[in-house]
Amino acid sequence: MVSPSPFTNLPATLAWDDDCLRILDQTRLPRETVVETLRTAQDVWRAIHELRVRGAPAIGVAAAYGLCVAVQRVRHLPLDAFRTALNEQAAYLDGARPTAVNLSWSLKRMLRAAERARVTDTLALYRALVEEATRIHREDEALCEGIGRHGLPLITAGCGVLTHCNAGALATTGLGTATAPIYTAQREGIAFRVYADETRPLLQGARLTAYELQQAGVDVTLITDSMAASLMAQRLIDVVIVGADRVAANGDFANKIGTLSVAIASRHFNVPFYVACPSSTLDFQTPDGRGIVIEERRDEEVTQLGGKPIAPDGIKVRNPAFDVTPHDLVTGYITERGIVRTPFDANLAALFGAAA
Ligand code: MRU
């Protein structure tokens, strides 16, 4: 598996190879680089649920190929029975994680492609599905490039950029979303600094963002989540760029837990706060952030660190994996078609409404 860009210097997040889905196991990075082969629907469901493949756009692409994996075993069935199995497997995969809209977006798109395919046999329909998944994959790469191009002017010589979680190459199949302007600026030879929040509890910032930016030669400094406001107070942060898992019609958005605190601190210190987001993460069916389902994960993710207990036995725990940031804390959305500013409801709909 080769890197999506020689610039990121990483193995690919995922690849379709020999009718199998191969993923880079992100739970083992940065210490071990392990590529895993997924051969069944259960393999794909677990890989998404356990965050071996994670990040909204990567989950979407993995689900598209995952659906192909899931129906391989029923390729001998008559067309009607195959279509029934296809719908069942899509519903199953859709339950792997609730918050990132890219999962249901890509599965719906696969089912639409199956409905439209003018085929007379099952094998041809299976091939049409692989073609659609490949299209979703290639489009994801292009969306990242577009975000990089439009976000580039936000990164100027000498500036400090803060990011939270991993909205990087590892979270997509291209240059990432929040990292796309960063990689593009690096490519342009602009000198700047990035601060990566470690991102408790699963440390995607420390394990993934710090790793991939360091691999790419970006000047990156790892901080704990609680340091971000203090760095803003010291005027070390000129711009914040984060990713998103779901953007509601009014511009409220869900992203990794802790994003809301960063947005509030940015408002207090007058630091521009941008959300990098491809159109596949827009959800016009959800009017505002109150309708976004937030994934709650296992207590052990909070009570343990590196597999070792760090809290008293029996302690009560909350572990929401995401939070919702209200649209009025957002300076702009960096999309593949340009930067969208307020009013977000009208401007997002004008740019993407019909397409979405
Ligand atoms: O739980 P994760 O690691 O899947 O959460 C990922 C994030 O919150 C990212 O910021 C988001 O998916 C955007 S990825 C381009």
TrEMBL record:
Protein name: Methylthioribose-1-phosphate isomerase
Coiled coil (UniProt feature): none
Keyword Cell cycle: no
Pathway assigned in UniProt: Amino-acid biosynthesis; L-methionine biosynthesis via salvage pathway; L-methionine from S-methyl-5-thio-alpha-D-ribose 1-phosphate: step 1/6
Domain of life: Bacteria
The protein's Enzyme Commission number: 5.3.1.23
Pfam families xref list: IF-2B (PF01008)
Family per similarity comment: Belongs to the EIF-2B alpha/beta/delta subunits family. MtnA subfamily.
Species whose genome carries this gene: Paraburkholderia solisilvae
PANTHER family: METHYLTHIORIBOSE-1-PHOSPHATE ISOMERASE (PTHR43475)
Function: Catalyzes the interconversion of methylthioribose-1-phosphate (MTR-1-P) into methylthioribulose-1-phosphate (MTRu-1-P). Also catalyzes the interconversion of 5-deoxyribose 1-phosphate and 5-deoxyribulose 1-phosphate. Part of a bifunctional DHAP-shunt salvage pathway for SAM by-products.
GO MF, any single term: S-methyl-5-thioribose-1-phosphate isomerase activity
Keyword Lipid metabolism: no
Residues binding substrate, per UniProt: 54-56, 97, 204, 255-256
Site feature location: Transition state stabilizer: 165
InterPro entries, sorted: IF-2B-related (IPR000649), IF-M1Pi (IPR005251), IF_2B-like_C (IPR042529), Initiation_fac_2B_a/b/d (IPR011559), M1Pi_N (IPR027363), NagB/RpiA_transferase-like (IPR037171)
GO biological process: L-methionine salvage from methylthioadenosine
Active-site annotation: 245
Annotated catalysed reactions: 5-deoxy-alpha-D-ribose 1-phosphate = 5-deoxy-D-ribulose 1-phosphate; 5-(methylsulfanyl)-alpha-D-ribose 1-phosphate = 5-(methylsulfanyl)-D-ribulose 1-phosphate
Alphabetical UniProt keywords: Amino-acid biosynthesis, Isomerase, Methionine biosynthesis
